[in-house]
Design brief:
62% of the residues lie in helices and 10% in strands. With 183 residues, it is mainly α.
Length: 183
């Protein structure tokens, strides 16, 4: 059944894998500022940054499973590096959205800040880091990201393949129908 599906999805998943790897290859430290709901791929991208700030008015989560899909876009690689595996499982299985304080307590983000302080706090840290010895920063980041890269080598393509398979399942179709009926 999957073989006959639209070829466009294959390109989408290749693009997701390439995006994940491209983010890992950025030499300079990356700081994310989550100022609204970061859900699914948005959540994965936000926490793939080297340091993540989250507004106390924002939420973060991954509802792939609720939609009948495998969250194969990178979240399953990064989240278990940031917080306990049993919490990752609970959050992935339920799709529950976290507020900034809980996300910080679990280690998913570095800092929870008020919306009015978000930009200033992020810029202050960015300026501090930018003033540090660049070679030492870049090499330190490269060594630390090796752990993520090794994980991605073994898991990213498998996760994306399972996500692609679940796109054509009856579970996903029913989840979409249920969502549309509520809208």
């Amino acid at each position: 059944q999957f073989e006959h599906h639209d070829e466009g999805h294959g390109g989408l998943f290749r693009d997701a894998a390439n995006l994940f790897r491209a983010i890992l290859s950025i030499r300079q430290p990356v700081i994310s500022a989550i100022n609204g709901d970061a859900i699914g791929l948005g959540a994965s991208l936000a926490v793939m940054a080297d340091i993540s700030f989250m507004s106390t008015s924002a939420r973060i989560g991954d509802p792939h499973v609720r939609a009948g899909l495998v969250p194969g876009d990178g979240g399953m690689i990064v989240w278990p590096l940031l917080m306990p595996l049993n919490m990752v499982k609970e959050l992935m299985f339920t799709g529950r959205l976290l507020g900034a304080e809980e996300a910080k307590q679990l280690g998913l983000v570095n800092r929870a800040v008020s919306p009015e302080n978000l930009q200033g706090d992020v810029l202050a840290l960015a300026r501090d880091i930018a003033g540090r010895p660049q070679h030492a920063l870049q090499f330190t980041k490269r060594v630390l990201n090796k752990l993520v890269e090794d994980r991605a080598t073994y898991s990213l393509d498998l996760g994306l393949a399972f996500e692609a398979v679940t796109l054509v399942t009856s579970d996903h179709k029913r989840a979409v129908e249920k969502f549309v009926a509520k809208a």
